[in-house]
Amino acid sequence: MTSPNTNFARWLERSGMSNKELARRVKAAAQVWGQPHIQTDATAVRRWLAGLQPRSPVPEVIADVISASVGFRVTAYDLGFAEGGTADRSLAYNSSFAVTVEAVADLGRADVDRRKFLAAAPFAAVAAVGPSRDWLLNTIDQHPDPGPRVRFEDVTAVKNMFGEFQKMDVLQGGGSGRLILAEYMNQHVYPLLRRTHSDEVRRALCEAAAEQTYLLGWMAYDTGEHGTAQRYLIQSLRLAEESKNAALGAHVLAGMADQATLLGDPAEGRRLAQAGRAGLGKNTSPACLADLWALEARALAKLGDKSDAARAVTRSETAYGRVRLEDEQEWAAFIDPAYLHGEHANTFRDLGQAERAERHARQSIDHARKQRRARRGAMSQAALAVSHLQRRDLEAAHSAGLRTLSLSRQVKSSRCVEAVQDLQRRMEPFGTHRLVADFNERARELVAAA
Fold first, then answer.
1. Which one of 154, 213, 308, 374 has the minimum C-beta count within 10 Å?
2. CA distance 42 to 24
3. How many CB atoms lie within 10 A of CB 46?
């Protein structure tokens, strides 16, 4: 005989939803998860309250619905259901290092073995609130289970691989090497986290694992799998905290800020960028500081705050002026003029300031061309094209648009495809003009393949 689920009852009462309303929202959320067979009603909710354990992924769907209602992350475990599955558990920022290791390892396995299910897991808008707060509080004191000791040589081997995978992402897009990196992490890195280490080796290993887990998240972000990306970023942030590397944690929060703004929540994007700056040491990583200011500028532009957005761009440029490459960590290598000018171009694009957007876009394009960075070049060409459209210069926009297409075909990046689709939407006011028709025809194959 089952016992009433008092945890679930307590959270349901806190959400303010009736049994019928919860059932309606769960059905709607199940559609987003790609689980249309889940047909919940008020009777099912009463059974859950009585102690019936629903089958996976229903507990994770319920947790998403409750989380959205109360405004912060609640897991299936919190609701009194069986311990949440991969998609749910990897959204939690757990104070236990051992639980974090299992969560990130299971996430890596799911990314390789159960990609279809994991890719369907949605982005949870409120999930970043707890992780960013807990990272700042920095209250951890957990140790891994005993086992063969890990040496510095093991950590060095992991760190040496990072540069190669990062280069693959920068030059070819997130879709080119992610599964290879996920398999490498599953086979060689996450198992090391379960073994014993000296405190110094443990911090170094967590730092290396955090770097590469972040890169997995960024690659998933670049291929449009935002639910997967979010889960990797949260676990990367927890590993960064364990490593005591404040700059690395701030870097992860920058990625989370970028994602939040992209997905339509610039207020959250700004908050995450501010949290990153708050945790960053005063003289630690000017490159990371420049990135955080650039991303706050992007968020402010989306919020329509012209003066503060322009001020944030200036602060980003000032911070980057203090960068000494030899003092920066390897993960900061991508934060350079090609990247920053590209972000600033997008900020001024969103503010409708075409002249400033064009200036930054051209500088980004020049740097990206020299480095053979097709993805960055494509995105900055798209920003340039928009600046021309804002001036009603369709011919110049068409030319920049064609360069966007050419570069986008060289990489596996959903962001490039989205930039092309954005251009198509912005050309719609020009109606059936021959240049619009030509661009749409040339873009058809790229967009259809995505």
1. 308
2. 9
3. 12
Contacting residues for 315 by C-beta, under 8 A, at least 6 apart: 293
- Tell me the pLDDT band of 238, cut-offs 50, 70 and 90: very high
For position 304, what pLDDT does the model report?
95
State the Cα–Cα distance between residues 208 and 353, nearest whole angstrom. Answer: 41
Q: How far apart are alpha carbons 256 and 241 in whole angstroms? A: 15
Nearest of 65, 282, 46 to residue 54 by alpha carbon: 46
CA 344 – CA 192 distance, rounded (Å): 40
Position 125 confidence tier, pLDDT thresholds 50, 70, 90: low
**Residue bearing tokens 């299910």:** 117
Interatomic CA distance for residues 350 and 377, integer angstroms: 18
Closest residue by Cα to residue 256 from 417, 124, 85: 124
CA distance 412 to 408: 8
| Pairwise CA distance, residues 275 & 138, whole Å | 13
Three-state DSSP class for residue 317: helix
Q: What is residue 79's DSSP assignment?
A: T
Q: What's the whole-model pTM score? A: 0.70
Specify the amino acid at residue 369: R
pLDDT, mean of residues 238-242? 92
Residue 147 gets the label, from left (phi > 0), alpha (psi -120 to 50) or beta, of left
46: which 2 tokens? 């009463």
When pLDDT is cut at 50, 70 and 90, the band that residue 366 belongs to is very high
3-class secondary-structure state, position 368? helix
User: Per residue, what are the HEC states of 117-144?
Assistant: HHHHCCCCCCCCHHHHHHHHHCCCCCCC
Displacement of CA 444 from its chain's centroid (Å): 27
Longest dimension (CA), the chain: 73
Q: Is 5 exposed, middle or buried (0-12, 13-18, 19+ CB in 10 A)?
A: buried
Q: What was the pLDDT predicted at 153?
A: 86
pLDDT surpasses 50 at 136: no
Distance CA 57, CA 121 (A): 10
DSSP assignment of 322-333 equals T--GGGS-GGGG
Asked if pLDDT for residue 146 goes beyond 50, the answer is no
Q: How many CB atoms lie within 10 A of CB 176?
A: 17
Q: What pLDDT does 142 receive?
A: 35
Q: With b meaning 16 or more CB within 10 Å and e meaning fewer, what string describes 343-355?
A: bbbbbbbbbebbe
* Residues composing the chain: 450
